[in-house]
Amino acid sequence: MANSAQATKRARQQERRRQHNVALRSDMRTAVKKVIAAIGEGDQAKANELFRVAQGKLDGMARKNIISKNKAARTKSRINARIKALG
């Protein structure tokens, strides 16, 4: 519980920031799932196109420190390996 005006304001700001980060994280996860779905269908061209979009989202999330740089790199590497295995 906030005991000062400053603490109340910081709590409000943090809640807005948290909601924004949740939305960004959800958007990133959706992009990754779309790539995985395209891989499941066996469509390499579509998977490559969706991977470019997902790659940008992952890098953006890592740049904003919403996910770690290693998680972004690991996810991109795993997805890319699965796309290459299709061909």
Q: Can you tell me about this structure?
A:
This protein is mainly alpha-helical and 87 residues long. It is 86% helix and 0% strand. The protein has three helices and no strands. Helix 1 (5-41) packs parallel to helix 3 (69-86) and helix 2 packs antiparallel against helix 3. The model has no long low-confidence stretch (mean pLDDT 96).
Q: Cα-atom Rg, whole angstroms? A: 17 Å
**Poorly predicted tracts of residues:** none
Q: What is the 3D shape?
A: elongated
The main sheet comes to: none
Secondary-structure arrangement, i.e. CATH architecture: Up-down Bundle
Spell out the CATH superfamily. Ribosomal protein S20
In short:
About 85% of the residues lie in helices and about 0% in strands. It has about 90 residues and is mainly alpha-helical.
Main attributes?
Methane Monooxygenase Hydroxylase, Chain G, domain 1, 3 helices, mainly alpha, single chain, 87 residues
Topology:
Layout (H helix, E strand, L loop, with lengths): L4 H37 L2 H20 L5 H18 L1
Helix pairs in contact: 1-2, 1-3, 2-3
